[in-house]
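From the methods appendix. Each design record in this collection lists the tokenized structure first, followed by the designed amino acid sequence. Records were kept in a plain field format so they could be parsed without special tools. The example shown here is representative of the layout used throughout.

RECORD:
FOLD TOKENS (52 positions):
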């Protein structure tokens, strides 16, 4: 019985680990896209010669 609970706990722990890795990758992709978009807008803004 103890070994069954041990393996259940291991499966739950591994599931949370996989979920955290997936969310980390999604966050990394979102950050990359936002950064690329902001750099693109900054480049357009400063290339027009507008002042702040």
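DESIGN:
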């Amino acid at each position: 019985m103890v070994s069954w609970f041990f393996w259940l706990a291991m499966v739950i722990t591994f599931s949370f680990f996989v979920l955290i890795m997936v969310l980390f990758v999604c966050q990394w992709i979102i950050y990359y896209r936002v950064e690329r978009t902001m750099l693109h807008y900054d480049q357009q803004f400063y290339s027009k010669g507008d002042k702040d």
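APPENDIX NOTE: The helical segments are 2-47.
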